[in-house]
Design a protein that fits this description.
The structure is a homodimer. By secondary structure, chain A is of the alpha+beta class. Chain A is about 45% helix and about 25% strand. Chain A has 9 helices and 9 strands. In chain A, helix 6 packs across helix 9 (about 230-235) and helix 7 packs across helix 8.
Chain lengths: ~240, ~240
DNA sequence: CTAGCCTCTTGATCGGAATCAAGGCGCGCC
DNA sequence: GGCGCGCCTTGATTCCGATCAAGAGGCTAG
């Protein structure tokens, strides 16, 4: 490993790959990569720190790099000229950014709160990808997964009612394994609304309705306690 | 090339890759593949014929194969239990089906009219993919492209008005280069409505409105003549 | 030709979410 | 503490697209 390789990125990339506790490994591109491939990946990474609201990559600009989130949350979104906005997704620690791009980025990525990233310059990353078949395989896997998610979201945006959307959203955030059911929302109501294709008022009203129906509890605005997951599941899936 | 390899698929796969006229090569996975890679791809292909309405692959079922369309149009869609349906996309000759899948297919693919496909059994295809780096590269490229498209559609479904949706739809169908502006719609109004997250009535009304405004002309229901592309573009992009 | 069916179009009415509007709450800062 | 500023919640009203309903045009079979 040459001297220009900073130590920090290597450590960080390693941490991403091994943080089993929060399920990061399963989503990360680093998942299932052998240790020495990880080393090589870390060797081309550059650490990048972003403050709240900072733009990580901008829709339409040349796709100069891929990123892997090591901490914090990111909002992925597209805008219309008149200011309407659609959040296409939220990214969490371990998530890989930049696959949804051709020559230019297809979405804007904005930091929610403080974010730390590993930045992989595009050319070097692609070269490495060709040298490491397991990495390219993994990228294809991640892309396929994201396509499945994207199509699920089209169904939500195109055909679900406000109640169904909000219920789906809550369940998506809840960890798969049966835990306490306490969800921390790192994003604002406005982000949620733009994610679900609704307005903040409708999101707020719907959450209030769920609380009245004893399906959830909200003590602080960004903490939701799930009380009736089966009920929410029934609403989300729109069983007649 | 072994005797079990049928001749027909090879010819068909070759034809897909070279049909420059209709722009197929650019979208096909076969694009930019060297001739002898194409041969190997063709060697694992099985021809499949589908009649109108026939299901090519079913959401939730084990992803047993990839497909490449050689002729005809395909509707990709997801359903809710109560029958609401979202068309996630239409696929044309040259398009590759099956990337949006993990262990199971993420969407259902249904033939619109008669369809001819090259079927690639999953295991053999993946093995070949590992043997042909240019193929895997191309798949990743196609997946990235589809992700960009998917996000564009989220913006449409989540934030655009009916007029904006229909205008966007017409422009997406129109060939990029300035041609006669005549669009043939292989799908029904119902398919279009489910694609745009609207009802057939709204699609029909909006098309009628565009006709009244001299932006399009419709002589036969499935043939639309674009008259005012700039106007449609302005509507689609929602310039205030 | 005609009956039956399917798809598309058009009109009338309804309803769910958007919009408009007004407060409430929490938090940092002076 | 108290003021100002965001963010969230709640209420009143509006409006776009859905739903309900009816009819037109085209295609096939007999």
């Amino acid at each position: 490993m040459s001297v220009v390789t900073p130590v920090v990125p290597r450590i960080v990339a390693g941490r991403i790959a091994h943080c089993e506790r929060c399920g990061v490994r399963a989503r990360s591109v680093c998942a299932s990569l052998p240790e020495n491939d990880l080393e090589r990946l870390a060797s081309i990474a550059v650490i990048r720190q972003c403050g709240p609201g900072e733009v990580i990559m901008m829709e339409g600009e040349p796709a100069g790099a891929y990123h892997n989130i090591t901490s914090g949350f990111v909002r992925l979104h597209k805008s219309l000229p008149d200011g309407r906005e659609q959040v296409t997704g939220f990214a969490r620690p371990g998530d890989f950014l930049g696959l949804a791009a051709e020559d230019n980025y297809g979405v804007t990525a904005t930091a929610i709160g403080a974010v730390q990233l590993c930045r992989f310059p595009r050319d070097r990353f692609r070269k490495l990808m060709h040298a490491l078949p397991s990495l390219e395989d993994r990228l294809l896997e991640v892309a396929s997964h994201e396509l499945v998610i994207a199509q699920e979201r089209m169904l939500l945006l195109g055909r679900k009612t406000a109640r169904e959307r909000v219920a789906s959203f809550l369940l998506d955030l809840a960890p798969p394994c049966g835990e306490t059911g306490m969800i921390l929302l790192p994003m604002t109501r406005s982000d949620i609304a733009d994610y679900l294709g609704l307005t903040i008022e409708t999101v707020s009203r719907t959450l209030s309705a769920f609380r009245r129906e004893q399906r959830i509890d909200i003590k602080v605005a960004n903490q939701v306690q799930l009380l009736d997951r089966n009920g929410l599941r029934r609403i989300a899936q729109a069983r007649a």
